[in-house]
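RECORD TYPE: inverse folding
INPUT: structure tokens
STRUCTURE:
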């Protein structure tokens, strides 16, 4: 009986959103159906409930939540910036990369639409466009669409995936073990 319960919970988690966003030469695309967004669902919540959960997600995950929110329409939409830093291997050294994703969340009864509107990146404090297809040193793709920096592409996608995973936990109401203080 417990196996069926665990299986049911697992299947609900799988159906709660459709894939992750991956970097392509055309920009971000859903790994499942090639749309430029992903959808989280929790049919038990209204748009107001999902909106409140998203606000809670921002408050829990960002030191100054009110500063990262760029637009906020009650029960309809939140647009916020999510900044990350990671190290990119480059030959014998690793370079520090900073990236800021501009994320928009749209709310409809039982669903959240997650879209990346823009991203800004800096490699060792030099700004660059990750989706620039040319001779720039740190674009992800060549003009032909072939991947130029596989490791950078992977790390770039993982930073966005971490935001998606954390938001998904809040939407599904998965209990993260909290310290007992």
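DESIGNED SEQUENCE:
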């Amino acid at each position: 009986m417990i196996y069926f319960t665990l299986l049911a919970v697992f299947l609900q988690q799988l159906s709660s959103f459709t894939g992750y966003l991956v970097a392509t030469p055309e920009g971000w695309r859903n790994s499942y159906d090639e749309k430029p967004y992903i959808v989280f669902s929790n049919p038990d919540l209204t748009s107001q409930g999902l909106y409140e959960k998203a606000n809670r997600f921002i408050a829990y995950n960002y030191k100054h939540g009110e500063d990262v929110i760029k637009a906020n329409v009650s029960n309809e939409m939140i647009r916020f910036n999510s900044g990350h830093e990671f190290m990119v291997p480059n030959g014998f050294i690793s370079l520090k990369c900073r990236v800021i994703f501009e994320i928009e969340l749209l709310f409809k009864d039982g669903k959240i639409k997650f879209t990346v509107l823009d991203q800004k990146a800096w490699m060792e404090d030099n700004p660059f466009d990750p989706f620039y297809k040319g001779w720039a040193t740190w674009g992800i793709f060549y003009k032909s669409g072939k991947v130029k920096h596989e490791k950078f592409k992977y790390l770039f996608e993982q930073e966005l995936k971490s935001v998606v995973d954390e938001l998904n936990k809040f939407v599904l109401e998965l209990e993260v073990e909290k310290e007992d203080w």
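NOTES: The first strand starts at residue 21 and ends at 24.
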